[in-house]
Amino acid sequence: MPQFHARVDTPRASRNMTRLFKHFAHKREVRAGEHHAQAVFAFGECRMFARSGPLLIDCQAGAGKAEQRLRCVIADHVHRFSGDEALQVEWQDGPLADAPAEQRA
């Protein structure tokens, strides 16, 4: 199952993550805390980490259309829910190497 990640520079990582996952919780299973959130979609899974520094995003999905759909959904929602920051997600292939150990899936 392909894995991909991004680091999004923002001084408001926790705020952006919280807003996004409150939205996701209306339609899917979400687990969220102050510094970590996870959503399970029919086509993949996404985890975010918000501590000091950038918003860290770590995802995995089935190959092909499922992967492209998850990349698009997450990037689009990060952009829309970031308000005036207009954040952009630049995906990198592979797992997020420095995800907090206690939060790795």
Describe this structure in words.
With 105 residues, the protein is α+β, with helices and mostly antiparallel strands. It has a single domain, classed as Alpha-D-phosphohexomutase, C-terminal domain (TATA-Binding Protein, 2-Layer Sandwich). The protein contains two helices and six strands. It has helices at residues 13-24, 65-81, and strands spanning 3-8, 29-32, 36-41, 44-50, 55-61, 92-93. A six-stranded antiparallel β-sheet has the order 2-3-4-5-1-6, with helices on one face. Strand 4 (44-50) and strand 5 form a beta hairpin. The chain is globular. The two termini are 13 Å apart. The model has no long low-confidence stretch (mean pLDDT 92).
Relevant terms:
6-stranded antiparallel sheet, 6 strands, alpha+beta, 105 residues
Estimate the helix proportion, in percent.
25-40%
Tally of individual domains: 1
Number of DSSP strands?
6
State the strand order across the main sheet.
2-3-4-5-1-6
Structural class: alpha+beta
User: Rounded to an integer, what's the Rg over CA atoms?
Assistant: 12 Å
Mean pLDDT: 92
According to CATH, what is the topology? TATA-Binding Protein
What is the terminal-to-terminal distance? 13 Å
- What's the CATH H-level homologous superfamily? Alpha-D-phosphohexomutase, C-terminal domain
How do you describe this structure in short?
The protein has 105 residues and is α+β, with helices and mostly antiparallel strands. 28% of the residues lie in helices and 30% in strands. The protein starts with a strand and ends in a 12-residue tail after the last strand.
